[in-house]
């Protein structure tokens, strides 16, 4: 297990998406209303700026790090936001609205916003105008394979409405035609429910649409190291938009 830093919150502090700090409002430059968030602070200044060590392969579900070893939400945001705004097609207001929306939507769904943020960074590096992945099948911040997900491509830089950004995140968390109380596949909230709250198995299912082996999280098609990559993001082994296959192709 990697070292634990001052920016780690206790499990109780993040239960059901509740994090420390007063609510904030992000005001976009686009044509929509501000997104209400639990906490969109850019970090508490105590987070390490680089990787906390060599990324580790978390191959088995039993090895997935517990919540007590994860970095705080503020720390994850602090380490990820810079990469979200380096894309020439995205603006800082759009990044801040994505940060705010992922917390708000995760909170409504009753899931830890750190998981949602880590999945978003894994899928799109937090870019509101990512490429359409998987040979034209995957859309938006969470790269969901749901036709009709609203995109930011037709809006000027830094003027994508917050409703469009929020809808992308809702599709990634709630799934196809899902809601905060009744999530559907392929949403991450659906997979967390289906897997009894087990994060490693849930993100395995999110990436591949199934959990072929509940013990060996690399036993799947798609990105075999996906669950391990998410684990490394949560504990600090992968930083921001950095991508690395943290398990070999067994």
| Secondary-structure class | mainly alpha
Give me the Rg, rounded. Answer: 16 Å
- Note the main sheet: 2 strands, antiparallel
Strand order of the largest sheet: 1-2
Poorly predicted regions: 1-45
- Share of helix, binned: 25-40%
DSSP summary: helix tally: 8
As a percent range, the share of strand residues is under 5%
Structure commentary:
The chain is an all-alpha fold. The protein has eight helices and two strands; from the N terminus they run ββαααααααα. It has a two-stranded antiparallel ribbon. Helix 1 runs parallel beside helix 3, helix 2 (92-109) runs parallel beside helix 5 (162-174) and helix 7 (199-208) crosses helix 8. The protein starts with 23 loop residues before the first strand and ends in a 15-residue tail after the last helix.
Key structural traits:
globular; 250 residues; mainly alpha; two-stranded antiparallel ribbon
How is this fold's topology laid out?
Elements: E1 24-26, E2 35-37, H1 73-84, H2 92-109, H3 113-124, H4 133-136, H5 162-174, H6 188-194, H7 199-208, H8 226-235
Antiparallel strand pairs: 1-2
Helix pairs in contact: 1-3, 2-3, 2-5, 3-8, 6-7, 7-8
